[in-house]
Amino acid sequence: MYHQLRGLIISGQLGADKRLSTVRQTAADLGVAPGTAAKAYKMLEQEGLVVSRTAAGTRVAKSAAVLPRSWSSTFES
Question: Do the Cβ atoms of 43 and 8 come closer than 8 Å?
Fold first, then answer.
């Protein structure tokens, strides 16, 4: 899940400031535990790819908009 969301963000398929579903909704949609979804969102936040705010939810960070190919390939596994 983390790798899928990360890929969508760094490829530009999820654009800057795009609001992500809530953790609960994402977990339900993907059939995973809410803790798994929360962990993925937290990892994305630690990388600076998303920003979480209480009232505004989780959004793709403006600085995450289509990262250079060399940077994104460095961290893919």
Answer: no
Q: For the segment 29-69, what is each residue's pLDDT rounded down to a tens digit?
A: 999 999 999 999 999 999 999 999 888 899 999 887 655 55
Gap between the Cα atoms of 13 and 44, Å rounded: 15
- DSSP output for 14-57: S-TTPBPPPHHHHHHHHT--HHHHHHHHHHHHHTTSEEEETTTE
pLDDT of residue 54: 83
Q: Is 65 helix (H, G, I), strand (E, B) or coil?
A: coil
| Buried/exposed code over 24-59 (b: 16+ C-beta within 10 A; e: otherwise) | eebbeeeeeeeebbeebbebbeeeebbbeeeeeebb
